[in-house]
Specification:
The chain is mainly alpha-helical. The protein folds into two domains: 59 residues; 48 residues. Helices cover 89% and strands 0% of the residues. The chain has three helices and no strands. The longest helix is centred in the C-terminal third of the chain and has 45 residues.
Length: 107
Amino acid sequence: MTDQANLITYIIKLEATYTKLKQKITREKNMFKSVLQNVSQNLGVKCNESYFDQLIIQEEDPLTNWNVLLNKQDDVIRIRQGIAKKEAILIKQKSKRRAKEQIQQQS
């Protein structure tokens, strides 16, 4: 249980850190947009905000992708387990064949 509790506290800390970072990124994005607007006004040039919104940050929420990552990890584990089972079956079959061959050679 202690490992599970440690993992839960670690995930909570990660989520808190992520939230802080996301807020910081949003603030910096807004600051950049305001600086861009000020510069464009000072130069008398029209600012294309939608272009810079696309250019600056492609917002993706890693926490929503957390389940996707866990599912991928589960899939990898299942695949590895399947491979291990197949290898174990092949090893057993080979040992049975060898035993049969030895019995045939002895008789």
